[in-house]
Amino acid sequence: MKISVLLWTILPTLILAGFNNVLGSEKERFARAIGGRPISRGRYPWLVLLRATIVTHKLFGIIPIRHKHIYCGGSVLNDRWIVTAAHCFKEEGSEARRIQRWKVRLATSNLRMDPLERVRHVLGQLFDRSDWVQWEITADRLVVHPEYDSEDSWKNDIALVHLKRPVPSGDDYSPIRRINLPDQGDNSFPTVGQNCVTQGWGCTSQGDGPSSTARLLRLPIYSNDQCRDQYHMINMDNRVCAGYRNGGVGVCAGDSGSPLVCDKDGESVLVGVVSFTSRNEPSRYPAVSTRVSQYVDWIHSVIN
């Protein structure tokens, strides 16, 4: 009886959500991405969205009356740990450093839960379908790399986030899967020119807010020497560059912390954590990422 009542309650919402979903897919075909295209849920099961709600104004200094959201991408390391960029927490004021402000969305491609996802979430819990459940979990611990330095072109821009409760990242039937890490100290992979991908909720055109749907960018590995010259950096230690010069393709605000993933022997490997790009012309410059192979030992020392 309860199931029958539940279905009659949610059926109108389900129909409406499906209709809106059709309209939404048509709209996305014409959305102007910076070289990216929308991805579906489950296509990149290690991709996560980190969102912080930051209070910006308080009435009488006590009652919150205005707030803003901060969005960053990240990658699943195991059942409890996420890797992302350190500057997501360090460059947005003291409120962003309070890890309780952050929630992590996993196994999703949407920035926010839509009506159809809410319905599937209820049904997933009712019928024990983990592939329907919406995974949104509060973070309870933040570990920023101890040598992170924003004044040195965001050097060591990497951080680890601990989830308040575990997720099934090793289950073959789970929509959440952990990403493979490279070998510690391996700078030979990837090679210049190798095509890699990054996924995230970055803006779809310069000056816009985050994309409502996660998008995929295919970016070739860029020469370290050229990247260093274009950004006027002293060196490219512990960094990797990917993208084009004047190619009309690039990461954008909201892509910070997102994974740069390359294929190695048929497996997807986390090569970089998106760190920064040109503030004024993101579609004309390659993206600079933190080279994960230089931090594998540090990652293991924290999560173990």
From TrEMBL:
InterPro entries documented for this protein: Peptidase_S1_PA, Peptidase_S1_PA_chymotrypsin, Peptidase_S1A, Trypsin_dom, TRYPSIN_HIS, TRYPSIN_SER
A GO molecular-function descriptor: serine-type endopeptidase activity
Pfam annotation, one family: Trypsin
Record bears the keyword Hydrolase: yes
Species this chain originates from: Lottia gigantea (Giant owl limpet)
SMART domains: Tryp_SPc
Protein name: Peptidase S1 domain-containing protein
Keyword Disulfide bond applies: yes
Stretch forming the signal peptide: 1-24
Domain Peptidase S1 as annotated: residue spans: 33-304
GO biological process: proteolysis
Domain of life of the native organism: Eukaryota
Protein keywords: Disulfide bond, Hydrolase, Protease, Serine protease, Signal
